[in-house]
Amino acid sequence: MDIHKPKPWHGVREFLKEYVIIVVGVLTALGAEQGVEWLHWRYQVRAAEEALLPEIQRNLLDSYERIMLLPCISGRITELRDRLQAPGSQWAADPDPRPPAGGDAHPPLADLARGAQAHEMNDVVLTSTRPWQDGAYQAALAAGVITHMPREQAQHYARMHRGFEQMKEWQAADHAAKVRLTSLAFDTALTPSEKHEYLDVLGELAFINNQMVTSAAQVIQGADKIGFRIRRAHLDARLKTAAPLTRACFYQPAVPLDPR
């Protein structure tokens, strides 16, 4: 069996030649590997952006809806405040601020999956209950895709996500406060102390309402600066849904819209 021994170098020149060949080969291999990795992350970033877009659109639309409901919620809080300040201990429940539910007593499974509602317990104050979306952002964050975006772009996504998270937290506080008003949905007698407690809850709701509207406006303005806008078609569809639900007490602030 022949064994090929490495040839000895004849001079520095030949050594440098072999050295350059090795270095160039290593650098070429590393460059190719980095190129493949760059293409991989570029694809991942593009896929993440495609997943993030509908999520951001949905959250922006929900933010706008909260602004739309400002006069509805403020008006209802004012109405309840004035009634609680009226003399007398008897409290007469007024109708649910929403129209009667009606409809099928046995709704399809798909409708239940979107969220079952206990209509036997009326809401005293009507507020939005839509869940805030963050699945696509959390998935991109967990997979490390956000860190492979351009720095400024990643900061924009993070800022929007923080805004949506803040809205989610305020909404949770809003729901917790609303539950404490449930007794006002029924005929009852109220002591002066109970009236004061309910007035405190209404004050809490008014504060939360203002904070949510402020946060929603900031989120929409921030998104507009980086090219994310609510689509006209989505807004028109939401308005059709909101009109009968709120008895058309809402208003429509002017915001930049995507014409699609």
Task: Give a structural overview.
The protein is mainly alpha-helical and 260 residues long. The chain has one domain. Helix content is 63%, strand content 3%. It has a two-stranded antiparallel ribbon with strand order 1-2. The chain has a two-stranded parallel ribbon with strand order 3-4. The radius of gyration is 30 Å and the shape is elongated. The termini are far apart.
Strand order of the largest sheet: 1-2
Number of domains: 1
Given helix and strand content, the structural type is mainly alpha
Backbone CA Rg: 30 Å
Strand content: under 5%
Helical residue percent?
55-70%
Number of strands: 4
**Shape designation:** elongated
The sequence of SSEs as H and E is HHEHHHEHEHE
Describe this protein with a few key phrases:
260 residues; two-stranded antiparallel ribbon; two-stranded parallel sheet; 4 strands
